[in-house]
Design a protein that fits this description.
Peroxisomal Thiolase, Chain A, domain 1; four-stranded mixed β-sheet; 2 domains; 335 residues; five-stranded mixed β-sheet; 9 helices; alpha+beta
């Protein structure tokens, strides 16, 4: 949309989509690999199974399939899409996987780029894309969250390997001059606590020629201090959501749905209790997919939209939180 400015004040949500790999890794199957049990995992996390990307899946492919279903729901001509933002920490190309999604879609008029903020990534990407639309330069955007954490899990670590799965979700958003369904948002980062959850580089020391050293590229497995991450989430997420409610003149009683990053069922329940939001309003599909990082929020939203739980004009409070440490919240009206 070169040089064109639109008279825009807000965004509308037009479609949702998701994709998960076919391979299902149940708790029982994990117990064949490490010393654990279905009862132990479910009682501590709420997870029963997770999806694992096979040889034919990667972030670009999963993100493309999720985006395509969102576009179909929105009933858009793909050529009218201006922006594609992919939230991922596990791209299949470190230079960026969003451009390959753009190519797969045939969205030739869209600019596409990756955004990395781990489990907060989708929410940060949604807010980022919304500001481009509100700024008047773009009209339509696809926001994707996709991660393939199975590639970076230590499958011999019984504390962490039970938590993660693979998948993708997407939302189609459109600029409008009539209203703004992104009611409010907030984002935070505390790098001082970043060591609680990270995926560090693992480099081998080598030499190019004599006296010219370098570090070869590579990554270690996911490292997590589960206790500290849990304490961080149950403290910070209610605070940021409460402040968001106050700033936008909402009360928790006016919230139709609470959609949190799907990390641990105990976190979801604790945040809901702190905000006095009934359990029946807390959306969760953690039992089926585990923690899919940037994919969890759009994956949950797409499921709830397609089974008619989330309906037109429903008010949704959402929060992403995780590595960085980073966390954010948004208050949206669906539609």
């Amino acid at each position: 949309m070169e040089g064109i400015k639109f008279n825009q004040v807000g965004i509308a949500f037009k479609g949702s989509g998701s994709y998960v790999p076919d391979q299902i890794l149940t708790n029982q199957k994990i117990s064949q690999k490490v010393d654990t049990s279905d009862e132990w995992i479910k009682s501590r996390t709420g997870i029963s199974e997770r999806r694992i990307a096979g040889f034919g899946d990667n972030v670009s492919e999963m993100g493309y399939k999720a985006a395509l279903t969102a576009i179909k729901m929105a009933n858009w001509d793909i050529k009218t899409i201006d922006l594609i933002v992919l939230a991922t920490s596990t791209p299949n190309d470190l230079f960026g996987s969003a451009p390959s999604i753009q190519a797969k879609l045939g969205a030739n008029n869209a600019v596409a780029f990756d955004l990395t903020a781990a489990c907060s990534g989708f929410l940060f990407a949604l807010i980022t894309a919304s500001q481009f639309l509100k700024g008047g330069s773009f009209k339509r955007a696809i926001v994707i969250g996709a991660d393939q954490l199975s590639s970076f899990v230590d499958w011999n670590d019984r504390r962490s390997c039970i938590l993660f799965g693979d998948g993708a979700g997407a939302l189609a958003i459109e600029a409008t001059s009539e209203f703004d369904n992104l009611i409010g948002f907030d984002m935070r980062t505390d790098g001082q606590r970043g060591s609680f959850l990270n995926l560090p580089s693992k480099n081998n020391e080598d030499s190019i020629i004599e006296n010219i050293d370098f570090l070869s590229g590579g990554f270690a497995s996911i490292k997590m201090n589960g206790q500290e991450v849990y304490k961080f989430a149950v403290r910070e997420v209610p605070i940021i959501l409460e402040k968001l409610f106050i700033r936008n003149n909402y009360s928790s009683a006016e919230i139709d749905w609470l959609v949190l990053h799907q990390a641990n069922q105990r976190i979801l329940d604790s945040v809901g209790d702190r905000l006095k939001i009934p359990r029946e309003k807390i959306l969760s599909n953690l039992d089926k997919y585990g923690n899919t990082s940037a994919a969890t929020i759009p994956l949950m939203m797409d499921e709830a939209i397609r089974n008619n739980r989330i309906k037109q004009n429903d008010i949704i409070a959402t929060s992403g939180f995780g590595a960085g440490l980073s966390w954010g919240a948004a208050l949206i009206k669906w539609g």
